[in-house]
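Internal QA ticket QA-208
Title: Verify multi-chain structure generation after dependency bump
Assignee: T.L.

Test input:
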Amino acid sequence: MIALPRPRRTRGGGSGRADGPGPAAPSRRRSRVRAFGLRTRLLAAFLLVAAVSAGTTSALTYREARNALLKTAQDTAVSTFRDQVERTGWRLPVEEEGIEEILRDLARTGKPRPWVVFAEYGSVRASSGENPVSSVITPELRRAATAHRYGSFERVVKDGVPYLTIGMPTVFRTGPDSTLPTGLVLYAVMRMTDEQINVDALLVAARNGALPGLAVALVPALLAARSVLRPVRELRRAARSMGSGRLDTRIPVRGSDELADLADTFNESAGQLERSVSELREAEARARRFASDVSHELRTPLAGMLAVTEVLDQDADRLDADTAQAVRLVSAETGKLAVLVEDLMEISRFDARAAELNSDEIDVAEAIRKTLQTRHWADDDRIRTELPAGVRARLDPRRFDVVVANLVGNALRHGGAPVTVHLRTEASSSGTLVLVIEVTDRGPGIPAAALPHIFDRFYKADAARTRSPGSGLGLAITLENVTLHDGTIRAGNLPGGGAVFTVEIPLRAEEASR
Amino acid sequence: MRRTGWRGAEMRRTGWRGLATAVVAAVGVPLVGGCGIQDSDVVEAGGPATVEAFLNRDADMLLFFRSPDGGVSAVIREARPSAGFGDEYIEPGAVTRDPSGPAGPAPTEKVVLALLAGPGEADRAAGLTTALPAVRAKEAVQVEVSSDGGVTARLPLAVQGLDATAVRQLTCTIAYNQAEDGRGVVTLRGQDGAERSGSCGLTPGSPG
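Actual output:
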């Protein structure tokens, strides 16, 4: 089965169907904030650059400042400690008594702040504090002091508290130029709390310097995003507006950047498109007017000819046989010509969008029966009907009559008996009730190649049979009529042979909108 | 349309992966630098401190004993109370120089005997010991200074069996008695006839 899409058209009334649910849905989808939109990306890029530069700058500044601060503190401590140690005097061997006195003296004068001094000599361990042995001094520092005999320091973080530990081996003079290790090593342990506070302050300052930078970076990012997004948004709106038929849409061109060029190009293209479309429309309108005018011009002489042929028909019996046959032929062809002209005029009205729907609430089964009666098909045994009573719908009676008559007539002409007219209502996929009229026949069916064109004007399914009783416009007019009812019509073949035409017209109580 | 959409999503994904890497790098740079105060290695900061040890070369003698960490430590002992060890008694202020020991006031033989007598009470209190065996013969130390500055000491003990610390104790004691800088080469000759020679090598900067 082939579903014929209902051509969308804006009717004379301009009911605004083009702006209906179709285009509105994507617009809702597009208008929501996008996670990876231009704005987000621009913001991310700006923030990233700002974060990298601010972070790197503050990190490097912070590190240098911290190292300088620590270096000053350490150097001061080490040189002070050495100075103080060099001012002390020791008897060798170092005796345990009295040693703490000296150590406390040393501890008091610590710089930049007091420290705890430990002394190690032989098996003697003493300190200015409570414990004779420090738990902070590492074996590495001890080795540097005892084995390598260097004054050295080490920063140790213990339980989150940073300490500066200094190891200072001592020597004494044995002569003006010679010294000898005493074996005494003095250690100073200093809490670096003030340095910690200063370093923390540096860190806070670095962070506080970097964060406003990030905040400030947001402003140009937003401005840049805006300057790009606004033209893009206008462009999108304009494109959509053109898509919905308003070809006179133009975009205001601001500035001279690439986006302005784009807007300019868009405007030019839109102008050219508008010109070509209007030329096409004019040509089409001229063609339609011509067809309409021709059929109108033909109608008047045809009316006269019909009157004459009727008279001739009545008198044909009195003429001799050959003349009578000729007269009957002329009469029949004139009648067909009249039908063709009528159909042409009807089609012209559809093309000119002058076709109007005069809806009325009718009993559908009754309307179909009336159609069959009018065409003298009511008692025809080639036609069967399945018409349940009580199906009422708002339809244009005249147009509905044309639809049913064309379908049945077409089935009788091209299909085989019996022709069945079947009426029912059913729920469509979208949930609304639709009126379904099926006209089936038992003929050979429609050739597959002809199916897509079956509703085309003057299309003949059987190319060899160029002359047919119909005008060639019947199915096209049927399609237009069904479409006018917002319905659809499909043509197809039954599995067991025979063609089936299915008309679906929504059963809507939408008088208000019409 | 759909396909380009997919490709776009793919590009977006790789783009965001790159962005994430960059952000991690941006955040990671300060982290690698470290916040707050970090541990450091042991940093050398100059030589040892020179303290006053009240050494009077004219009145004191330097003896070297074994310290608990395995090295040797110098102790300063006044020569006066050690008079009981030697034959001579040195009057304070009235120093008579021994002709055989020109470098120091205390004769080397006496100093060596003081060393062989072992650490005193104060030395032991500080954890100092000796690696030298106890010696009974007191007079058997003889010191000769050769023309090239080398010192040879004849000792009343077997030199062959001495360990490195004991040799060092003797060498340093004799060397620093002979010279202020203790750089001379000392040869030890024992009763067993064995000879060991070397220098003290306790100057700061050299391991010891």
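Spot checks passed. Chain A touches chain B through 76 residues (CB under 8 Å).
Status: verified.
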